[in-house]
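Internal tracking record. Fields below are filled automatically when a chain is submitted to the structure queue. Please do not edit lines marked as system-generated. If the sequence contains nonstandard residues, flag them in the REMARKS field before resubmitting.
Queue: standard
Priority: normal
Entity type: single polypeptide chain
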Amino acid sequence: VQLVESGGGLVQAGGSLRLSCAVSGRTFSLYAMGWFRQAPGKEREFVGCIMMSGGSTYYADSVKGRFTISRDDAKNTVDLQMNSLKPEDTAVYYCVGDVSQFSTVATEWDYWGQGTQVTVSS
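SYSTEM-GENERATED OUTPUT FOLLOWS
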């Protein structure tokens, strides 16, 4: 499975960005996909995830109500819509996938994209 993120950039506080993760390879094997982020000097942080069967979503408290994860099966993409962005959302955002479970722990995910930078200015 290969994951490629796009859509990062610079935005002012209060603005919106939409990240997209293009999925290729054995996509049918995926149980869940999600997003993590890593700010400078900090550990990777769970943002949210979506179940590939049923579409249930889960979010970190820090983004709940502001971020939305969705998937487009026709395009083989998983998107992260980010609204009401704050400077503390500045980080490299990573798309992740797993074949058997979902977790808030970064090391438990099977597949990772290369990351895309999101910078929110105050």
